[in-house]
Amino acid sequence: xxxxxxxxxxxxxxxxxxxxxxxxxxxxxxxxxxxxxxxxxxxxxxxxxxxxxxxxxxxxxxxxxxxxxxxxxxxxxxxxxxxxxxxxxxxxxxxxxxxxxxxxxxxxxxxxxxxxxxxxxxxxxxxxxxxxxxxxxxxxxxxxxxxxxxxxxxxxxxxxxxxxxxxx
Length: 168
Description:
- It is built from 5 helices and 8 strands; from the N terminus they run βαααβββαβαβββ.
- The protein has 168 residues and is an alpha+beta fold.
- The chain has a single domain (4-124), classed as Gcn5-related N-acetyltransferase (GNAT) (Aminopeptidase, 3-Layer(aba) Sandwich).
- Strands 1, 2, 3, 4, 5, 6, 7 and 8 form an 8-stranded mixed β-sheet that branches.
- The radius of gyration is 15 Å and the shape is globular.
- The N and C termini lie far apart (32 Å).
């Protein structure tokens, strides 16, 4: 079994992480290959500069995933409420997808939850595009519950469902 660890991203990784996020979202069918949102996904350096926590999953020296933790009130936070943290743009390299329990996505979620707890949050939230059934199953399996009163539509045709997990 190979070593999987999650750590803070380095500045020299930001551009590659942006590309990993886009590729992951396209492969997972959470993003149309021609979607303008790609530019926002690539803005890893901007997220880090704004105080968000950019995390990297690394296996055997290779980056295999990333996620961004955005505490309430920060520039990239969209659904967190006071006392909450949220994570966004969780992405797994296509070659590392499908790891199931103990896989890359689960390790990233655990690290996001721990970062939220370290930031003093009592709850962690995540928005998931409505048709990403793999992500919905992951979050439910990890104890997140749906918060349908918080679902939202950032742009016409994109419906996001919110999940939350009490952490503190």
